[in-house]
Write a structure and sequence with these properties.
Length: about 200
C-alpha cells in the first residue's frame, strides 16, 4: 500500500509515509506487483453418475461421483436404454469384441440401437419380416461376434430359424432375447458376453 501511495499520492511539502519504506522492501514490492499471480490449480473434472454407471470405468483424469436418484446422470442421462447400452459397450471392449448382429426388432428400436452404439459397436440388423436365405444368414453368422435373436419382436419363424438352426456351429455367439425393449436386448447381450468371459 505504501508503494501505491508513493506512486499515486499528490506531492506534499511534508514527508510522505512511503518515504519511510526501506529501498529493498519497495523493490521487492514492485517486483511482486509486476508478476502475474500464480494460476489456480486446475480443477479435477467431475462426472456425476447414477449407481449403475458408477460400475463403469471413468475416463483418465475424471473423478466419478455418485449422485442420488433425483439427479440426472452425466453418463447415461438417467436413461435405462443408454445405461444398458454403455454396459454392453464396456463388455464388448473388455472382451475385444466389435460386431453385433440383431435378428428381429422394429424400425424404432433399430434406430435407437444404431444411435446408442454408434462409433463403439458395429451393428447389423436383420429385418424380422424380410427375405433372407441360408447363404446370407451364414455370412451374417460368420461376420458377427455376437448374434442376438430378438424373439419377442417382429420376427418370423422362417427368418429366425436360419440363425437358430446353426447352433451347432455358432452356438457360442447366439443369445435369445425373450423381452422387448432396447435395454432388455443390451442386458441380454452383456450377460452373454460376461458368461463367455468365463
Amino acid at each position: 500500500m505504501l508503494v501505491w501511495l508513493a506512486e499515486n499520492a499528490p506531492a506534499a511539502e511534508v514527508r510522505h509515509p512511503a518515504d519511510f519504506l526501506p529501498a529493498e522492501i519497495a523493490e521487492r514490492a514492485q517486483e511482486a506487483l509486476a508478476r502475474s499471480p500464480e494460476p489456480a490449480p486446475a480443477q479435477e473434472p467431475v462426472e456425476r453418475r447414477c449407481a449403475d454407471c458408477m460400475k463403469l470405468p471413468a475416463k483418465a483424469g475424471v473423478r466419478a461421483v455418485e449422485i442420488g436418484t433425483d439427479a440426472v446422470c452425466d453418463m447415461c442421462g438417467s436413461s435405462a436404454n443408454k445405461r444398458a447400452a454403455l454396459a454392453m459397450i464396456e463388455a464388448f471392449r473388455t472382451r475385444g469384441l466389435r460386431r453385433l448382429l440383431v435378428v428381429g426388432g422394429g424400425p424404432g428400436t433399430a434406430e435407437d440401437l444404431r444411435r446408442l452404439l454408434a462409433g463403439e459397436v458395429d451393428i447389423r440388423i436383420v429385418d424380422g419380416e424380410g427375405h433372407r436365405n441360408a447363404a446370407k444368414a451364414d455370412a451374417d453368422l460368420r461376420w458377427a461376434d455376437v448374434v442376438a435373436v430378438w424373439s419377442s419382436t417382429i420376427l418370423s419363424h422362417k427368418v429366425s430359424k436360419l440363425y437358430t438352426d446353426r447352433r451347432d456351429a455358432f452356438g457360442g455367439k447366439l443369445v435369445t432375447v425373450p423381452r422387448r425393449g432396447v435395454a432388455a436386448l443390451c442386458m441380454a447381450v452383456t450377460e452373454k458376453v460376461g458368461l463367455a468371459t468365463g
